[in-house]
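Priority: medium. Attachment 1 of 2:
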């Protein structure tokens, strides 16, 4: 069976800036037909989205999927709550870790894998301002080193 590459739909860069990502889990999403068509067109935003647990199930809130333009009456609410497809053990593990103070569950990216819509969710801990400054300084140093390396190799 031929493995298909992942097709990235949405990425949450803000999550990596605002949080330390402790652990990641891949989950399926329960979607309607027109939502899948809209995702294939790349019309999705997870900047404001978060994941929560209710009655032993995981849901993603505030994930915006634009209505499919040819979907007419079959279109769903763009901000509706969507169920995540996870094993019970994964749900218990994430829900237990999220109850610890300072932890939250964030969607990191949405993509298609073997024709199925997936979301990568991460257990995240909030960063302090000094942590963000340190990360920015590291990025600047790395960028400067790459620039110096490139200049040396051109000569």
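Attachment 2 of 2:
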């Amino acid at each position: 069976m031929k493995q298909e590459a992942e097709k990235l739909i949405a990425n949450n860069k803000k999550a990596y800036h605002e949080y330390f990502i402790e652990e990641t889990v891949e989950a399926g999403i329960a979607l309607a037909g027109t939502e899948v068509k809209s995702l294939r067109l790349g019309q999705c935003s997870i900047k404001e989205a978060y994941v929560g647990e209710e009655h032993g199930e995981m849901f993603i809130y505030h994930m915006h999927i634009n209505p499919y333009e040819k979907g007419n009456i079959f279109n769903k609410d763009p901000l509706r709550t969507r169920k995540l497809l996870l094993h019970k053990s994964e749900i218990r593990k994430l829900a237990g870790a999220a109850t610890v103070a300072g932890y939250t569950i964030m969607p990191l990216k949405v993509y298609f894998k073997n024709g199925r819509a997936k979301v990568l969710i991460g257990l995240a801990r909030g960063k302090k301002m000094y942590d963000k400054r340190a990360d920015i300084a590291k990025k600047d140093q790395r960028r400067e080193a790459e620039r110096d390396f490139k200049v040396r190799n051109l000569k």
